[in-house]
Amino acid sequence: MTPTDLTVQIERGLADLRDLVALPSVSAQGRMLPETAAAVRALLEAEGFTVQEVPGDVAPVLIAEAGEGPATLLIYNHYDVQPEDPLALWDSPPFELTERDGRLYGRGASDDKGEFASRLAAVRAVKARHGGRLPLRVRWLIEGEEEVGSPSLDRVVREQAEHLQADGCWWEFGAIDPEGRPVLSLGLKGVMCLELRCRVAASDLHSSLGAVVDNPLYRLARAVTSLRDDGGRLTVAGVLDDVRATSDADRAAVAQIPGDGQAMRDTYGVTRPLATGAGYHDRLGLMPVVNVNGWGGGYQGAGSKTVLPAEGFVKLDFRLVPDQNPARVLDLLRAHLDAQGLADVEVVELEAHQRPARTDAAHPFVQACVAAAREAHGTEPVVQPSSGASGPMYPFQAALGVPCVAAGIGNAGGRVHAPNENILRDHFARGVAFGVALLERLAAPPA
Predict the structure, then answer these.
(1) N or C: which end of the chain has fewer CB within 10 A?
(2) What is the pTM assigned to this prediction?
(3) In this predicted model, what pLDDT tens digit does every residue of 371-411 receive, in sequence order?
(4) What value does the mean pLDDT of the chain take?
(5) pLDDT tens, 248-277?
(6) CA 6 from chain center: how many Å?
(7) HSE-up (13 A, CA, CB side) for residue 51
């Protein structure tokens, strides 16, 4: 295939992306999910995939298969996106793919419609090289619930295990760093989203009664400050006991990761980093963390209102590492709050939790991905034992025993989940090239 032929497939993939971004498939709000699933199904069927639609709790799950050859590659993507709010901070319409200075902006441009479109373009390119034939088996699972915690995925993976067996799984996301190096992630943190709630009265009170009635926001503040120290280390008793010991291979991989997060700090204007230098990547990928996502209760308007609120809430997420179990962490949190004299602070689990997962860096599939990245990008890839992000990788490893590698087209300034989400046009093209290199490498007869 000539560079011109590959360019044709890249441009076709960008046209697919434009059409997909136009569909506001926001799973948190139940918007356009069946319609987007139908659009994805049509794209796959046009390339010869047989597609099975499995009902999900929130949105359809698509399982597709095409090709035949010496290896089987499983690809995981999702077609749902985050809400576009706050709309006023977008510089162009969120559901209209817009190009400015080599960047393509739109909700889902990166996460995850851009990843899907680039991979489909790679499949087309490989088929074109082989006279319309796909020289390996490609199985594809594409869900519409990832942005709300993938509540159906564990069930679907276990029920459909026979149709999902593979030599390796190409995970749904990835990045190219500011120096142009592809970043491959071999694992994901788990995530557990919670709400702490506290009520002290049936209705709001005059603030003078704060002398004799406790304040729910104060109690929530006590709860939150008891969860970690000033350096970000979790202080819930027992919560670190199950953290898997870091292997020599993991330490070696972390040590070779370049940078210390400066690009991220510059992009977001960070003023209070918890880790820099050598500790940055260790903390990001290998240690658990608790985050305060939001706080509510009491008067929120302009000026003052002397009120003692009746109730309040705090939203949290825990990012977990192997071998932490979200259910055990939840039990430990409840026991911790009780021990702090905060038995009246209610703990409510939000969405479906996800368990952490990590692939052995020595696995042959990992090495195939590393070689394909080196070939496509012309530089040595960065291999992370784990991303700092979360996703539903655990069922693929627990139920299928499939090694997973995340490799994709994201960038440090991609603003995923935020206004002005974007990808670089050049990164999309390089993502297609990586897909071609990986598929061709897996399709080659064993030596």
Answers:
(1) C
(2) 0.85
(3) 999 999 999 999 999 998 888 999 999 999 999 999 999 99
(4) 95
(5) 878 888 888 988 988 889 888 999 999 998
(6) 28
(7) 21
